[in-house]
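This part of the workshop introduces the protein records we will be handling. The structure tokens are whole numbers drawn from a learned vocabulary of backbone shapes. The record below serves as our worked example for the rest of this section.

===
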Amino acid sequence: MCDTLVALSNSTKDGVTIFAKNSDREPNEPQALEFYPRMEHDEEFNNCTYIKVPQVKVTYAILISRPVWMWGAEMGVNEFGLAIGNEAVFTKEEKMETGLTGMDLLRLALERCRNAYEALTFMINYLEEFGQGGNCGFKRKTYYHNSFIICDPKEAWVLETAGKYWAAEKVKDVRSISNALTIKNKWDMASKDLVDHAVEKGWCKDDRDFDFSKCYSDRFYTHFARGRERQAYIQTCLNQNIGEIDIHLVKDIMRSHMLGKDFTPAKGSMRDICMHAGPITRPSQTSSSYIGQLFEKVSIHWFTATSTPCISIYKPVFMESGLPDLKLTPEKIYDADSIWWIHERLSRRMMGSFKEYFPMIRKQMEEVEASFHLRAEKLRSGFLNGEVSMEDLRNLTKEAFVKSLEIEKTLIGEVKTKPSNPVFDLYWRKVNSEAKIRL
């Protein structure tokens, strides 16, 4: 399960568009943070996760967060400040065994488009031509359709799909999506037979009775995904703070748990924005988090590149300088050199002692973040004025990742494991055994 939001420049405190997404995946499904420069191609086709599509002569530079087993990306941004995040949505339309995954569509659009509207039309065209489909689960087979927030520094769109049917809404100020269709009977663009198909299926009587979300949603899976509740929570937070939204508020949203100070991983739920996996009804957890400050020139991108953002540091990354030479693409099982897996040791050691260590860890990480935030803004200003080099930007990114790693390795040695409850502990023993991770 996932959550994505956008606050356009007319709604933020500093007048800069902010995009954010928490990517929720299976707990042992590592996520890579990768930078690909602008490239020229002479091959005829591009191999996506399950199918191939025609290749283009030039693909743009992209910064993406990608589950390690698939070609597509959960979220990302390109050299023009185009940012996209997707959500699994559960609909009545048939789930196809093959096709483009939502993550494939996202990455293709980042590689080939310059702005939000261009990406919207590209994704619609590819959706209708190639269809969406294929297993999107790591260890558990999972099939779903997709919704997206597509934004650039100046505008944003919500695209929601059900098979090859779709509706799109232009964002006016703030918007969030989670794992549920949200567009009802008003939209700015839609597939031409969207209403007629619903009438033919008996989901509504006529166009006056039509509601895209109500007609096309699979009620059972949508209910248990709790996407409507998470979307409503985020949308309310954004609506109540229009004009005062900044990166600090967005970080608080992406790190939030519904129980607040009473939260522990064993008491977590599918209503949490920062999701922690658990037995039976909670198969996903936040595997990576991204917040983008989409300035028209030289954006600042904040990635955890680790799970559970409530105890992770957001690190600054610049498209102009790319990523440092660190292991940001983890192996599929425990890998002692990987930043993602090292964080997993800390997160999983804290399962039973979360309330004991969380206040201290959160305070320490927020202090480090505040320092890097000030330095990132200063370097950005200097870079715009020609006083700072790309190497300076890259060095800040590397320093942030190295500092985060140092803190987490120290905490791993300090945090003591404690039992939680028998069912929860049994679940995590099984998960850890499958990943071959020793706490």
